[in-house]
């Protein structure tokens, strides 16, 4: 018959708490013999409550609790040289799936100064960890799928742009050719935008890199002579949500396309400057060129598709557009104020 370790009278309340606890708890003596165990511990690890009192921890069940490292840590905790906090162990039992457990242990002052007692809490985190891994796998799979879709969309847009350019070369009408060129430029700008998004890892988009790479893509596809025309980008350390970055990128590309089409006729040299800066939730985006400026009166061009796109995007961002003389050239400024 197993002999139960002697328990000081003042430990009775601790025993009652341990036994009635809904959490898997063990009350151990200094030599790691079980003084008491909660019913939830016996139920969770399939141990007969009638056989547990007085047994050594290493003898519980079929010996699966005989873990040298855990025993060593419990000894150190009992001596006061260590404390077990969130120590992870794998409990392996015959013909059963291994369980991942988190163990916490500390000495307990139950009024008996001559004997050290240990209170050990055991939490089974197997299912929680499995759910976390499943969630991580789903998030990773979704990110990979989204990136693949973005790559395919960007490739498809480039194919469409090539078809439009080939069609522009074949048509006889100057007006039709101009429309096809406009369509080609917009498809290429969307393709450049898509390429930048496809390299994003999700979450907020860092605008300096994003707008710089986007302007480089636009320049490579639309500026034949970099020595004649250039695009410069100045952006602070702002980062915005992905959908906001898409709108800002589209606004920027439309304004750059417009400047490249109208600001530098007759092989005129010049540059386009893009500037973005923010303060809290307020921000300003400006696209400025040093070209011929905006014609006035009867020479002013009619608002086209690009203007409509910019106005719609700015409205969606709850911003305001300001057009001004850059002396020389034109400045378009979009401001958002809370």
From TrEMBL:
Residues 243-338 form the Histidine kinase/HSP90-like ATPase domain. It comes from Devosia nitrariae. One of its GO terms (molecular function) is kinase activity. InterPro entries: HATPase_C_sf (IPR036890), HATPase_dom (IPR003594), PAS (IPR000014), PAS-like_dom_sf (IPR035965), PAS_4 (IPR013656), Sig_transdc_His_kin_sub2_dim/P (IPR011495). It comes from the Bacteria. This is histidine kinase. Transmembrane segments: none annotated. Keywords: ATP-binding, Kinase, Nucleotide-binding, Phosphoprotein, Transferase. Signal peptide: none annotated.
């Amino acid at each position: 018959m197993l002999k139960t370790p002697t328990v000081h009278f003042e430990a009775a309340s601790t025993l009652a708490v341990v036994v009635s606890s809904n959490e898997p708890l063990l009350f151990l003596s200094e030599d790691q013999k079980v003084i008491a165990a909660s019913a939830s511990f016996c139920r969770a690890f399939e141990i007969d409550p009638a056989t547990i009192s007085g047994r050594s921890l290493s003898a519980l069940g079929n010996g699966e609790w005989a873990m040298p490292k855990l025993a060593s840590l419990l000894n150190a905790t009992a001596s006061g040289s260590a404390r077990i906090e969130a120590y992870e162990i794998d409990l392996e039992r015959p013909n059963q799936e291994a369980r991942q457990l988190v163990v916490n242990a500390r000495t307990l002052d139950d009024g008996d100064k001559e004997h050290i007692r240990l209170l050990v809490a055991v939490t089974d985190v197997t299912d929680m960890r499995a759910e976390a891994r499943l969630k991580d796998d789903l998030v990773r799979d979704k990110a990979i799928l989204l990136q693949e879709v973005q790559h395919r969309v960007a490739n498809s847009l480039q194919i469409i742009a090539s078809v439009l350019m080939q069609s522009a070369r074949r048509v006889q009408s100057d007006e039709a050719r101009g429309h096809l060129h406009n369509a080609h430029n917009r498809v290429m700008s969307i393709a450049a935008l898509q390429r930048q998004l496809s390299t994003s890892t999700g979450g907020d988009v860092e605008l300096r890199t994003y707008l710089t790479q986007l302007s480089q893509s636009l320049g490579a596809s639309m500026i034949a002579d970099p020595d004649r025309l250039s695009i410069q980008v100045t952006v602070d350390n702002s980062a915005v949500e992905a959908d906001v970055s898409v709108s800002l990128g589209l606004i920027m590309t439309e304004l750059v396309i417009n400047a490249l089409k109208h600001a530098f006729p007759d092989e005129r040299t010049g540059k386009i400057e893009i500037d973005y800066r923010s303060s809290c939730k307020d921000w300003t985006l400006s696209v400025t060129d040093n070209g011929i400026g905006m014609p006035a009166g009867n020479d002013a061009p009619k608002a086209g598709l690009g203007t409509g796109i910019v106005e719609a995007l700015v409205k969606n961002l709850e911003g305001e557009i300001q057009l001004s003389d850059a002396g020389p050239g034109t400045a378009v400024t979009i401001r958002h104020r809370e």
